[in-house]
Amino acid sequence: MENIMYVKWDTGYMNIVLQNFFPCSVAKFKKLLKVIALDWENCDRLTEDLKVYFQNQVVECNETAKQSARDYSNLRQKVSDLEIMVKTRKKPVGVSLTQPELEKAREDLSRCRKQTADALSSYKQNTTNVKKFQRLLEELNR
């Protein structure tokens, strides 16, 4: 399926870039369905294309959310380890950190904290998108 949906009716047309338009609110989606209904020749094909697109997006967002959750878990562990290293100024084996190693550990800690926040944000966004796409799919099946 294409990434751009073309809807044509008697007095005009509309190109919809699916990645930019969806997920949208149910109100916007209902308006779009009214516009799609104007293209009476291709209405069934367009709604089927939307259905397939939504189903694919649900699967893709689920996979991305799972990957983000794994990344978040791994990064939380790394942040915990680095916090202990910075706090105690020792490596896990008990050897003291040199000043350059301590500075690098602090930089790594800062970077890992940011990556952890990004992974959590990605997880939340993808789980929200899954719910939105499922809601749009339900609306389409009515």
Summarize this structure as a short list of keywords or feature phrases.
single chain; 142 residues; mainly alpha; two-stranded antiparallel ribbon; rod-shaped
Oligomer: single chain
User: Low-confidence runs (pLDDT<50, min 5 residues)?
Assistant: none
N-to-C SSE series? EEHHHH
Number of strands: 2
**Order of neighbouring strands in the sheet with most strands:** 1-2
Give the terminus-to-terminus CA distance. 22 Å
> What fraction, in percent, of the residue positions are helical?
over 70%
* Beta-strand percent range: 5-15%
**Structural class per helix/strand content?**
mainly alpha
Averaged pLDDT: 94
The outline comes out as: rod-shaped
What Rg do the Cα atoms give? 24 Å
- Describe the largest sheet: 2 strands, antiparallel
Number of helices: 4
Explain what this protein looks like in three dimensions.
It is built from 4 helices and 2 strands, in the order ββαααα. By secondary structure, it is mainly α. A two-stranded antiparallel sheet has the order 1-2. α3 (43-88) packs antiparallel against α4 (99-141). 11% of the residues are buried.
In short:
The longest helix has 46 residues, at 43-88.
Topology record:
Blueprint: E1 4-9, E2 12-17, H1 18-21, H2 26-38, H3 43-88, H4 99-141
Antiparallel strand pairs: 1-2
